[in-house]
Amino acid sequence: MTPEHDRSELPSRPRLWNDPKVRAIVFQVLVSLGVAGFLIYTTYNTLHNMEARGISTGFGFLSRPAGFGIAQTLIEYTEAESTYGRTFVVGLLNTILVSGLGVILATILGFIIGVARLSKNWLIAKLAETYIEIFRNIPLLLQILFWYFAVFLTLPEINDAIQIGASTYLSRRGLYTPSPVFESGFSWTLWSAVAAIVGAVVLIRWAHRRQELTGQRFPAYLVSLALVIGLPTVAFFISGRPLSWEVPERGAFDFSGGFALIPELAALLVALSVYTAAFIAETVRAGILAVSHGQSEAAYALGLRPSWTLRLVVIPQSMRVAIPPLTSQYLNLTKNSTLATAIGYPDLFAVFAGTTLNQTGQAVEVISMTMAVYLTISLLISLFMNWYNTRMALVER
Amino acid sequence: MRTQTFTTAVAALALLVAASTANAGATLDTVKKRGGVQCGVNPGLPGFSAADEKGVWKGIDVDVCRAIAAIVFGDAEKVKYTPLTAKERFTALATGEVDVLSRNATWTQTRDGGMGISFTGVTYYDGQGFLVKNKLGVKSAKKLNGAAVCVLAGTTTELNLADYFRTNKMKFKPVVFDTSDETLKAFEAGRCDVLTSDASQLYSLRLKLAKPDDAVVLPEIISKEPLGPAVRQGDDEWFKIVRWTLFAMINAEELGVNSKNVDEMKNSANPEIKRLLGVEQIKHGLGASDAWAYNVIKQVGNYGEIFERNVGKGSALKIARGLNGLWTSGGIQYAPPIR
């Protein structure tokens, strides 16, 4: 006979303050109120103190004219009329330029060095290892200063500039090349280039699907290359060659006109790429080593050549392991680009958090804006890489 | 568990209360309690503030700080120096990190007005000039169209440069660095044709070149750069002390009192000297002893001594008094009388 349950033994409903769920909610509310209260209090305190000391507050300074010159501006900028807000945009574009180019160069170089480190050729592997050990262990600032003062500033002086081709000059003031001047009618060429790229992407996808379904190969890459080069060229000639070149001319002191690649940008780009490539090489190597050796053995057994195995079997699988550390390296590169102030490259930090901060004295606003920008850039990079990682992830059962 | 939360709550509240608004008026009390004046200076500008091989700070700006300490403590050595870059100098002063900024800063309206600081006087009347290499063959700043110019970031120099070239319808390419040494290195390496800065800095920077005679300072002075010490605004007591430090040194030179003869000058019959040295008492209201000016002159010197020893005949810079001479000898240094 089953004993009857004794009513008094059942646990009674817990009291309100003993209930774990209620306690959790209450604590969370209290902590959120505490954090919010702390933030509000800090903001109020800062504003009050700044007012008491007579330091101007507010973002009104962004519409005042800046009055100082910037060495490299990717958009229109004049000392007389451009505002502090415009210096912000100029600095931001310079940072994005050097970070973007740096990421691309570092990835390419890092991949090459990483794969070279695993080469069976002893010399190549040792060279790669030396490269990694040297450039990983020297502080980045020293490397930037080295490239700037010991390499790019020892190019020939402006009077002895090396002439490359008809109107390209290399000196320690920079690489001066003719810059294109787009006349009316160039939009045809531009749009046809866009159409060609879209067409190429569609073509390649179609060719891949066709190959998977029927096994027939189609020279999609060659055809799309011809398309991307050919179509805009045809449009260019049809619309009457609407392109002229602004040539750098020698003045009393320096060249004017044309496009100038300043040594500051070159030094920063090279230093950042070389430094980050050393880290990326190790990440790539780790990724490749993480792929089970059985994969390459099976590929060899199937008759695939070593280079094909690497490209088609090993590297796609190694990406899963390599992408999260790669994200960190990209973020590091972006943040390290602030070392531009050491050599006078006008990136966001140097122009906005340096000169503008000093001229206006509004440290809190300027630094918050700068921090927000770097935070946004970093979050965007992480977002993209996380999306890419999810796409690449192994779908396990 | 209950006592833990209670104590943390009390600690947090105590922190909040303690972190409440700081007072903006009692610099003199803070300085006296600390036992030394916290002085913001240039990390290395020969003649104005630079540490020599033994680590002893020397320069005009350094001497101004020592004079302030002589007034407050009677001892010119009770100073601590904080080297500040051009980027952080005003923020460091406005937020209380230093008591006085003696860092060859130019007195301008926007700095006086919107940054929470006040300038107390002019230690050195300077102006902006250009340094070019002799081999360019340029004799005037008006012939610099198209030149690459090295300049310090965040200074009035940057702004004046843009204004000057625009007014004279010339173009230039700015090459902007954070420290004077970098601008000099780039100028020497040929990255830029011209180096622009305050004329006094140009002379001192030129000395650092490998071949100083290869470069020349162009004759044009394109701006007014009155350099002087600055303090936080809202503290009148401290402001007056720093202001009268400079005036005491100028008055001393005007009356012929220097660090060597100050003791015998105490017996002078001249009533102005008697008032200066505190022999005849006046209500100076500076919160210091009657011998405040005496301490300054004895331990630091009068304005002429400070000038000559740091940037004049007694130094490597050899800058002439020029505008910085007394008003009685062709310059414009003039101090209100001590009476």
Task: Explain what this protein looks like in three dimensions.
The complex is a heterodimer of chains A (397) and B (339). Chain A has 397 residues and is an alpha+beta fold. Among the domains of chain A are: 206 residues, MetI-like fold (Orthogonal Bundle), CATH 1.10.3720; 60 residues. Helix content of chain A is 64%, strand content 7%. In chain A, α4 packs across α7, α5 packs antiparallel against α6 and α9 runs antiparallel to α11. In chain A, 29% of the residues are buried. By secondary structure, chain B is an alpha/beta fold. Chain B folds into 2 domains: 190 residues, Periplasmic binding protein-like II (D-Maltodextrin-Binding Protein, domain 2), CATH 3.40.190; 96 residues, D-Maltodextrin-Binding Protein, domain 2 (3-Layer(aba) Sandwich), CATH 3.40.190.10.
CATH topology of the largest domain in chain B: D-Maltodextrin-Binding Protein, domain 2
Largest sheet features of chain A: 4 strands, antiparallel
Under the CATH scheme, which class of the largest domain in chain B? Alpha Beta
Q: Using the CA coordinates, give the radius of gyration of chain B.
A: 23 Å
What is the first-to-last residue Cα distance of chain B? 69 Å
What is the general shape of chain B? globular
Strand content of chain A: 5-15%
Total helical elements of chain A: 11
* Chains forming the largest contact: A-B, 45 and 52 residues
Chain-averaged pLDDT of chain A: 88
